[in-house]
From TrEMBL:
Domain of life: Eukaryota
UniProt-recorded name of the protein: tRNA synthetases class I catalytic domain-containing protein
Native species: Acanthoscelides obtectus
Family: Belongs to the class-I aminoacyl-tRNA synthetase family.
One of the Pfam families matching this protein, by short name: tRNA-synt_1e
Record keywords, A-Z: ATP-binding, Ligase, Metal-binding, Nucleotide-binding, Zinc
UniProt record, GO biological process: cysteinyl-tRNA aminoacylation
Length: 310
């Protein structure tokens, strides 16, 4: 005798018109929840560490998926950690969904911003909170991305000795170790990525204060190791979230080589202007610098040396 309870969900649904298969219970097809259990079990197996999905799937889909998978695999726990994300909204509107026809295509979004900037926006939002998609949100994310990009460039300038600075090795390494511990705690505490960003900002603020300080005695402590350690740590954490500051594509490398040539030519002309004290030449160099800035290329002059970033 088969006992059916009110709260039981369907593992097999009767079907005549839709795609169906013969079974001991008649023609039908698997229930919705079976699909995910079957795919995940086939690809991963009888134990899953982290399972993610939208907040709307928490019940009934994920609970039913867990129940039937535990029964199939004869285990009391199939998934160790569930992560349910909030909705993506448009400003002053409901959540984005295909049914409401208010979605934004990725190719359209990339006309307004970059993939890294959007990833930054996601990191700045708590994963289980709703996120508003707007120009203001994208602008904020781009600004934050720019702060980190400038920091990486400043570290490069220091290591290339374009920038002279006083570095307190012990203090900086202590700040780095504390940041690493704080970030680990933030991720363990409900995957708090906004708090991770706060700790990273504090670390780069501490580092920047040293990178822009010169010893009053005229002796600079050129400690490249601690600055490199901080730079690598920041880049590693952000790359874990998919935000990268080093591009390996051939087109990016070609672009970099072209800007290198332009920067070296401008630098040579600028040195000539400095040596001859020719204000007209220096004014033209400033014009090139300002024009490039409008296109996202930042030229930094360090005495008779120049560096660039984008």
């Amino acid at each position: 005798m088969r006992v059916v309870k009110v709260l039981d969900f369907a593992l097999w649904k009767h079907s005549e018109d839709e795609p169906h298969w013969n079974s001991p219970w008649g023609k039908g097809r698997p229930g919705w929840h079976i699909e995910c259990s079957a795919l995940a079990s086939k690809a991963i197996g009888s134990a899953i560490d982290i399972h993610a999905g939208g907040i709307d799937l928490r019940f009934p889909h994920h609970e039913n998926e867990e129940a039937q998978s535990c029964g199939f695999h004869n285990t009391s726990q199939w998934v160790n950690y569930w992560i349910h994300t909030g909705y993506l909204h448009k400003k002053h509107s409901e959540k984005m969904s295909k049914s409401l026809r208010n979605t934004v295509l990725i190719q359209d979004m990339l006309q307004e911003t970059t993939a890294d900037a959007f990833r930054m926006a996601c990191i700045l939002s708590k994963y289980r909170s709703n996120m508003e998609f707007s120009k203001d949100m994208l602008k904020t994310a781009e600004n934050v991305y720019g702060v980190f990009k400038n920091f990486i460039t400043t570290c490069d300038d220091f290591k290339s000795q374009y920038l002279k600075a006083t570095i307190n090795h012990e203090h900086l390494i202590a700040a780095l170790n504390k940041c690493a511990e704080d970030i680990h705690s933030a991720l363990c505490d409900d995957f708090d990525t906004p708090l991770v960003m706060k700790h990273l900002n504090e670390l780069i603020s501490t580092t920047n204060s040293m990178l822009h300080t010169t010893s009053t005695s005229g002796h600079e402590a050129m400690d490249f190791s601690s600055v490199s350690a901080v730079q690598n740590f920041v880049m590693t954490i952000l790359s874990t979230f998919g935000v990268n500051f080093r591009s390996s594509s051939s087109s990016s490398q070609d672009f970099g080589k072209i800007v290198d040539i332009l920067n070296e030519f401008r630098q040579s002309v600028r040195i000539t202007g400095i040596e001859k004290r020719d204000k007209e030449i220096l004014s033209l160099c400033d014009h090139v610098r300002d024009s490039l800035k409008r296109h996202g290329i930042i030229i930094r002059d360090h005495g008779k040396q120049s560096s660039w970033s984008n």
